[in-house]
UniProtKB/TrEMBL annotation:
First-listed, main subcellular location of the protein, grouped into a coarse class: membrane
Record has DNA repair as a keyword: no
GO CC annotation, single: ATP-binding cassette (ABC) transporter complex
Chain ranges of the ABC transmembrane type-1 domain: 15-208
Species in which this protein is naturally found: Gottfriedia solisilvae
Protein name: Arginine ABC transporter permease
Amino acid sequence: MNLDFSQIVPSIPYILAGLKLTILVVVCSILLGLVLAILLALMKISRSKWLVLIADFYTSIFRGTPMVLQLMIIYFGLPQIIGFEIEQFPAAVLAFGLNSGAYVSEVIRAGIQAVDKGQQEAASALGIPYRKMMSKIILPQAFKNILPALMNEFITLTKESAMVTVIGASDLMRRAYLVGGESYSYMEPLIFVAGVYYVLIMLLTLLGKAVERRLRTND
């Protein structure tokens, strides 16, 4: 059977309208995950065994269970405990952000530990507070070292955002599925959406390389 993309041309604006939700979910999840990842990374290098255990346990839970399961637990299961429903958008951001935080925390921890320990010792000798030392000296250097790994995580999150279709969120994937259902022809809209995701990923890749080159130039 030949593919006929002309039949989905009238539906392209409808499908692309889901791009806004996809981008919003990704951006908000990245911000939430990054804040959480920094906190978890600092806990993992803490001298407190309890903080290390809590951070490691958290990471093991989110890295040891499927993302789609986490999303469904938050959207379908959590309301059973808290007594009220969670909207699709905050549920998606919460699920992806919590999951991303677990993965990115390992990347940041490795980046922090890769920074020369002599700098921390020198900062401590000069009486620089720990918080200021981390925010002004250690973390900026760590982020330069781990930028490629961070971009890979963000690219992965962008692709995984398509999972919001399982909770009925009207993103790119959901709209492509609905268009396919109306025409009884799923391949064309799904291939179109695959192309949209491919362009997004390529733009993120180019952005990451540009930022990396800029950082190297400033060194």
